[in-house]
Every structure is written in structure tokens, then in C-alpha cells.
Amino acid sequence: MTTQPPTNGHLPSSSSSSSSPPSQTPLKTPFPTPSHASTPPPEPKLTEAQEAKYHQLLSTVSAWTSLPEATGKHASTAPLSDDERMWLTRECLLRYLRAVKWNAVEAPKRLVATLVWRREYGVAKHTADYISIENETGKQVILGYDYAARPCLYLRPSQQNTKRTERQIQHLVFMLERVIELMVPGQDTMALLVDFNDNSSTPSVAQGRQALNILQGHYPERLGRALVVNVPWAVQGFFKLITPFIDPLTREKLVFNDDLRKHVPPEQLWTTMGGEVQFEYEHSIYWPTMNKLAAERKEAYRERWIKAGMRIGESEEYLKGGTRRDSMTQHVEPALKTMPSAQTNGTVHSDGIIPDVSQLKIGA
Questions:
Q1: For residue range 56-77, what is the model confidence (pLDDT) as tens digits?
Q2: Which of 62, 68, 101, 265 has its CA 20 to 30 A from that of 284?
């Protein structure tokens, strides 16, 4: 249930009587795993109709060989890379199907739009060194996991250290990518913990809309919960302006000024948010450690994908180190031989090339 910002706009105070004494040495690196109190929820069972639409989408994307390199009408195409094929997992296809309410015609269009956006935006080219300056004050921190084993991404506007430029949005995208790499088997969503206070700078409506369009259009079904605390009057006004652009399903995941210990185990929750973790952001320690951990997870993910046969539609749970491989993943190729491709109103040619994405509109 969505909780509206209260008039006092402050985070509920925490009681120290129920908490264990904090460590005297501040933590300066991310948690590599969730606590024992965290458990990913079971995967919802698909209906027969949903299974059929998944197979239909899998058949369609498995035929893709090339994609446009930009959104322009006459953009050149380039072959689908191994990284792009690896990105097209079973769970990825299901996320996009859920995002379009299981519309088998719209789902491939949305997938194409994201793949082209990732090429055009240069998601893979934004290195840790390039983004580093944006995070020198720790305005975004990946720390701990909530009770559903979602990795927690803290957004701290009060630590803003740069002027409004495109790199601020690139910074957000970079951190989203790292959060995804740090997800555990069986969990494909994140928890956003947004801490406003009297010193926080309020983003512009235009910048807010751009971030929302990226999150909703190109990271659909990735937000599990957004916990927003210490909301001052100025920021409440910003939320009122930006709310019309937020998808209704996303709005349902917003919770304002709640006790965060109900959502995140205290032993993995920062003391600034009412938890027990004495965390201190030191860029020279945290930044290389977090990026090294994410890179190691990504490399292990890739190795498992290669070992499994480099298939489109592979299971993310398996790729992230889980033991389960979905039966439909193991039998993709035989199934595709007997399955007709989905009709997509001419956006996909028989040779697997999608020639024009200039008319695709994602987000408000």
C-alpha cells in the first residue's frame, strides 16, 4: 500500500533498546550477501496462457540477428552481440511481458527499444573511472539487502556534488547496472532507499521525467520497493509535480516515511535510516571494492552462460549461481523448430532484422 508523505516529513525515530550495540569500526564496503533474515520470494507460477505468450516471445527474439544502432529512421544495423543475447534471459522476457500486460505484440517492440537505447546511450561504455566523480561524496550507495533479498540502493540528494549534466543520469544508470549484477539467485528486483533532508537539492521536473522514462521504459519490473524518508515540503511539491508521469504500478511500490526496519533487516540497514550498520562512505575504499565485486559477479554470470550453451532465454537464477534451470530453457532449440514466430505488425523481418524503431515511444 502506498503511504503519502506526512506533514512532519521526518523519519520515525528508532529505538536502541531492541538493537545490538553497533560496531566501533565503521563499515566501508558493501555487503556481499543478504543476511539470514532475507529470503527471495517464490517465483509466481505462470498460467497456460502466459506460458504460451512467453514461448511466442522467445521464438520471436531468438530469430533476431541484427538491430538498429540508433533510433533514427534510416539508422544502420549491427549484428546482435553476445552480451545482448545474454541479456535476453527468460526472466527478462517475462519482465517485459508483465510490463505490457502480456501483450505479445508490444513486448518485442519494447525489447527492441531497450536494446537500441542501450546501444545509443552507451550503457556498456560508461566505465567506473568515468562515473567516479559523480559518486565521490557517496550520493548513491549500494548497501545491504531487504527482507526479500533485494539489494538496496541508497539515493542521498543531500550529498549532491556536481552540476546538472547528462552524466548525473548516466551515473544513475551505471548504479542500476551494478545493483542488477549484485542481485542474488531468485531475486530480480531492487529496493530504492531515498533519504531527503533539509539540505537536499530538489531535482528538476525535466530531469525527474528523464530518469522515470529510463526506469520505466528500460528497467521495467526491476523496482521492488521505493522507500522514501525525511521528505521536506519542497520535495513534497516535486513529488506532486512528477506523480502524473509515474506508472500506476510503480506508484504502488512507493512508501513514504515508514519505519525502514520493517523492510530491511537492522543488521544490514544504515544507522542513518534507523538500522544498526555504522557505515562510513570513503570513496577510495568503497568505489573500487563495489565495482570489483560487481565485475566478479558479472564474469561468473558470463561463464555460466557460455558453459550452458550461450542461449537466448537462459535462466537468470541459474546464471547467478542457483541450481535450478527451467525445463523450458533446456529445451529451447527443439521447441523453436516447431513454433511459428510472433506477428509484430511488420516490425520484424523474416531475416531477423528490425529495421525501424524511430516510431517507438517509451514512457510519458
A1: 999 999 999 999 999 988 899 9
A2: 265
Cα distances from 326 to residues 43, 97, 185, 186, 329, in angstroms, run 12, 18, 13, 12, 5
DSSP 192: E
Using an 8 Å Cβ cutoff, are 265 and 39 in contact? no
Quick check: 175 and 153 in contact, CB under 8 A? yes
pLDDT for the residue 275:
97
What is the residue whose three cell numbers read 531497450?
A: 114
Rounded distance between C-alpha atoms, residue 338 and residue 311, angstroms? 17
Would you give the DSSP letter of residue 57?
H
Residue entry with cell 539489494? 151
Close Cβ partners of 215 (under 8 Å, ≥ 6 residues apart): 176, 222, 223, 250
Instruction: Name residue 226's beta-bridge partners.
Output: 192, 254
Phi, psi of 126 (to 5 degrees): -80, 95
Run of H or E residues at 56:
helix 48-62
The Cα 225–Cα 141 span in angstroms is 16
d(CA 315, CA 326) in angstroms, rounded, equals 6
| DSSP states along 299-323 | HHHHHHHHHTT--TT--HHHHTT-S
Give the type of residue at 248. Answer: P
pTM across the whole model: 0.84
- Residues 6+ away with beta carbon under 8 Å from 161: 134, 136, 137, 139
Other beta carbons within 10 angstroms of residue 337's beta carbon come to: 7
SS3 for 328? helix
Would you mind telling me the total number of residues written for the chain in this entry? 364
pLDDT digits (tens, 9 = 90+) for 206-244: 777 888 889 999 999 999 999 999 887 766 666 666 676
For cell 552524466, the residue is 167
3-state secondary structure 148-164: CCCEEEEECHHHCCCCC
The neighbour count for residue 137, using CB atoms within 10 Å, is 15
Q: Supply the Cα-derived Rg of the chain in whole angstroms.
A: 21
Other beta carbons within 10 Å of 342: 19
Which candidate, 61, 86, 98, 124, places its Cα nearest to that of 220?
98
